[in-house]
Predict the structure.
Amino acid sequence: MELYLIFPELVLLLCALLVIFSDLLGARKEALAGLAVLGLLIAARLAMELVGPDKGGVAFAGAIVVDDFALIFKFLFLVSTLLVVLASVEYVERFEGVAGEYYAVLLLACVGMMLMASAQEFITLYLSLELTGISLYTLTGLLRDARSSEAGIKFLLLGAVSSAVLLYGIAVLFGLTGTTSLPQMAPAVASGFQENRLPLLLATALLMAGLGFKLATVPFQMWVPDVYEGAPTPVTAFLSVASKSAGFVVVLRVFHTALGRDPLAADWAAIFAGLSLASMTLGNVVAIQQGNIKRMMGYSSIAQAGYLLVGLAVVPQSGVSGVLFFLVSYTVTNLGAFIAIIALSDKLNSDRISDYAGVWQRAPFLASGLALCLLSLTGVPPTAGFFAKLFIFNVAVQQNLLWLVVAGVLNSVVSAYFYVGVIREMFLGAPVDRTPVAVAAPVALALFLAVAGTFILGVFPGPAMSVASAAAGSLVP
Amino acid sequence: MIPLEHFLVVSGALFSLGLYTVLARRNGVLVLMGVELMLNGVTLNLVAFSVFSDPQRLVGQIFAIFVITVAAAEVALALAIILRLYRNRQTANVDQADLMRW
Amino acid sequence: MTTEQIVWSIFFSPLAAFLLICFVLRPAGAHGLAGLATIVGVAGALGASVVTFLNVLAVPGHELPLADYPWLTIGDLRLHLGLAVDSLTSVMLLVVTSVSLLVQVYSLGYMAGDTGYSRYYAYMALFTTSMLGLVLADNLLQLYVFWELVGLCSYLLIGFWFHRPAAAAAAKKAFVVTRFGDLGFLLALLALASVAGTLTINELFTEHKVAALVGASFLGVTALTWVALGLFAGAAGKSAQFPLHVWLPDAMEGPTPVSALIHAATMVAAGVYLVGRMLPLFQHAPAAMAVVASTGAVTALMAATMGLVATDIKRVMAYSTVSQLGYMMLALGLGGYVAAFFHLMNHAFFKALLFLGAGSVSHTTGTFDMRYMGGLRRAMPVTFWTVLLASLSLAGIPPLSGFWSKDEILATALAASPGLFWLAMATVLLTAFYVFRMLLLTFTGEYRGGGAAEAAANGDAAQGADAHGHGGVRLHESPSVMALPLVMLAAPAVLSGLVNLPTIPALDDFLMSRTVRETLEAHHVAFNPLLAAFSTGMALLGIALAWLVYGVKALRADSLGSALGGLPYRMLYHKYGLDFLYEKVLVGSLLYTVVCGLFAALDRYVVDGLVNGAGQLTRGLGRGLRRVETGQVQAYGLAIFLGVVVITAVAIVRG
């Protein structure tokens, strides 16, 4: 049996059920979090077993593939979920009795994403996408207040529409090629390009729209600010990194495997270049105007999606490795920022940037960690974000996409304005009251891990870069 | 036998009607019905393609069943959230859910 | 220790101080030891720099062979972590560590009792580390990393007194404006990596790399020119060259020792260092060289005129710094490699001294506004005499250090471009004038009340926190920890010119290390006694004019026997002559007001306007675009639908 290839997912599924039952039996919230952490660690350990030559493979009649490319994402999802679980130990107090469900659904979302990373066939892909999606809608609407419900319904309705659009694209591709398997689709797409050009382009556009929703790229980004603002903060953190990575794993897999041959590849690369420019510009420019930090981070995540798409505007393997390294550094950086925001917003009981004034004096560790992560998002060395941008821009320069690089660098200047604005508020503002903000140990640990990752990737990006290149090699030979 | 094009036209029409409903109706429940219509359009597409391209393997039909199942789960969740929205705001109209904007 | 370990210790010694303060002293609450830690760390770096300097001096070719370590690989581009030490580096190391050490000692007195004492020293240690890392880097990426870190430290230090809104705003302005320049730097890096395939500095100078860079072109201009312009944009941001100079005067909101170290002696010199370091590349791009030279000359002149009207003593210094950096850029643009670095070194010493002197003055008077100073010569003899020496050096009076290097620059300009030469010459006059205006307003005449008077004039009780002096109560010399660095800086400010006398061009020989000698066309300009005499005459003229305007005016206000003593008695006697002069000065001052007003207006409305305008445009755009996000879920759905339509249309049209 090839079942061992999905052991990590199965363990997590089991763990999610255990969390729900323990909750029913009246386990304490801390115990539930511990159980979730344990499950994630075991899953990660099992996933480690799949690393290495000849360890992975294809399972379930080609529906699931475990290669380096899938594995790097699985680890990314496991780490993100782990850090989010650690960071929310205090925040769960706000869930009023549904803390168990929170952890369980979070784990289910993680399972869905890990399956997305492995899916090599459209039915599996759709199902894992919806498993993730429905879990995330649930998490978004988990608080009882009006904002959380509003964010939930907006997210759900738009998500449903976008998955209908995605399905329509899948159906067209299925009709043209007679298969739902990505590798089998590739030759049929390539050979049928001349006679079926219009339906193929329509299908590509539909796939872009359906998946662009997950990536949060313009013009499918509209849900992002509202949902980020209204969702419980740990869920926002999870959305901003894991959900985006999950979008990218699917986009990379689908476009490079099924639609990766010229001349169609040149078409979608050019469109992604345009979307990239629009996303980074809109995200950065509007972020300047925001007064709510979660909403600002929402626009920031749109902008970061724009930088990431630079790697999709480049067809060769180097583009994929650029995206992978960027996603790794973006994940640790953005999570770091959000962990600090979760703790600060919870204690300050506000998401207003102006209420962050002088928090440096009240919570030096949180403020310094947040500042470092924001600098990394700006792209200031020596942080992960600097090399992420450098690599991805370098790839684009090699491919003569100079205009996009100039726009990207210009955008990162603009982004300095609002990222540094928050830092300025925290370090140079005058605090209203000076009572120190206490940080729970798991939250501090999570922040420390994320910040250390941001810093290490910013000083010695070499090893991570070679891992990214190897993983890209397994997707695009 | 009815040619494939007819199925494609009907499914396209269903999808578009659904999209129109989603964009135009205010009541959240009706919007949800629009989403269902869109999904039904897709489902019809899948089945028609399957029948015409490879009648033996039933891939499209299987896909269709999954889509229907997922849609049911989605609707259940959506109704729950709409209910909560109604409790908070005393309305089920999605256009009044605009606490967060800009 | 091996030579290499010594070089590394230059970098790690202040870094250790920084880490010690952050992770041991501050958590332990031993804030008072922070100053000591930084001083020891920087002193260690200075010691190692001296040893390294001697090592470099002893090696033929003046380059130390150092190992480098694989860092990362991007595609075909292999990067190494490594240090490069040649004669230029060793001189920069000496300048940075020695000025830094004196500033740290001075800060013991200046920052005593400040609530952010240990934070201040932590930033200072980090800054020194970054600056040393910048100077030591053997490849451009490493240099860029430290370049940004230096900028970050500058941000933290300008905004050090964060409770003042002006400080916070200035910090952000500095950060954002310099990042505009860094945009060019980063693009240049990417272009170099893609065309030349390496970022190691010395490898870039090899013939086939240069040929590759000259061979490739973009928009009809060679890649090399683009690269040079990009690097210069970065340098212009950091070295406050027109039109990116707008941040430096505002940066004076930081503590004065910070201004002395960062915004006078070291960080702002980083831009000059970068252009100079890359000069073997720049020389193959004549267009870029012309841009560098003319930007330098224009900056020098413009900043000097603005120095004439500033009333804040630190702003006078800031404009002066911008102006002097313009000189260095001018020299580099004309190929005057040695002249530029000779001036950089001299300037670092006398300008640091001037800043520390200004700090000392404000420490006593409680204000930075020269209109409320005056008559401090008696009360602060050490400050007065040291500042006088530095001012003479800045004005270019022989045989002080500034004279020799400025003269080399002028000679280079005369040989290359008469137009730029006259701009530079006009700047000499203005420089002498504004620096003596500062000197006379501050130290002569009668004391005009200091911070108390300023507060009264402004009608508010809130005083600048930097000016925590004793306004008007009792004037006194600053404590010896502050006075001592002044005296110690005065020595190089006077003497550092001697290292490159026309007859014994020691620095000239030393700076032309093997690589530079092989790759750079030497521009050696012989000493010209006539020119030297002329420029000295101009400087003296400037001083005389300043004296007539400010010295004499002070006399008129005073009665006999006041601060200026018996000397002016004779001048008073020639009352008519004075009236005549006053008329002259009045007419002159009209011209003066118009010209300077014009430049100030240009600066405020055009340059500042462009910089701010770009910001406002972006913000306006943001205000408009955020309205797209209406909060209506159905509008969002419509956007998805339209997105699909547009993408399909574009895809079809494209193919």
Notes: The radius of gyration of chain A is 21 Å. The first strand of chain A starts at residue 57 and ends at 59. Chain A touches chain C through 74 residues (CB under 8 Å).
